[in-house]
Amino acid sequence: MKARSHAYSNGEPMSTALIESVLSRTKRFLFKIDHKRSKHMRAMRKILREKLAKKDEVKRLASLKQDNLIPSTVPIPERTANDEEMQVGGSGTSEFNSRTLKNKDGQYPSWLSGRQRKHLQAKQAVQKRNEKQKKMKKNAGKVTKRKKTQTKNKAEAIYLSSTIFRQIFRRLTSAGGSGDTGIADKVQQLITGHKVIVFSKTTCPYCIKAKQILSKYKLKDYKVIELDEIDHGNEYQNVLGKLTNARSVPRVFIAGECIGGGDDTERLDQNGDLEKRLKKVNAIEK
After folding, report:
1. For position 87, what pLDDT does the model report?
2. Same domain, yes or no, for 206 and 269?
3. Does this model's pTM top 0.90?
């Protein structure tokens, strides 16, 4: 059996351009047929929707009036002989929920179409999901706020307990000696026992400034007492406050005399009085 070939009736072969032209015309012809059929189907569906809409409106109004959802004075269009009979209860009271449109058995009214039921169910599902998300966010916010409050209360309790413990410990340890009198004697011994002494704290910027100024000179018999690193540092600071009428740090003493704090030391250094005082008490190495 021989294979068929595109050819004219006289046996001459068909050109490629001619084949493409035939195919293009065939496609356009089929498209027109499909378009006419679609247009006809759309017209028929429109007519059917209009016909069903009238019947659904009659059923809906009759059911609403039966369920007492609308006044009885609203006129209802007369139903045609082809309309189906409505199945409504004769109780005279509304048995459908105004929000969900369901009765106690979970059934929708007979006038509600299938498409309307699906739309209502989808809308209710979205509302339910949104309410659930809002509730979850609200609960999450409450939990976060509760956790923050608990953490804050716990930190405050720890800080308060540690402060109280330190105060009790200092009182107990100071009770074993001679109290403030013993600490005052120690402070006085330190002041008189050194030519230059600084009562300081490691985290105080003014203390750091005063110590840096004094470090420029080659001092002998020079001592620094860090009050935040020794026992009873708070009591030492109270005694210094009584001696110098200032409880702040640093307290710089030269030959038993308080020259002030960090700013005072800087001022004396700038006008040259600090060096004169140090040389006067022979506190600078030669």
Report:
1. 40
2. yes
3. no
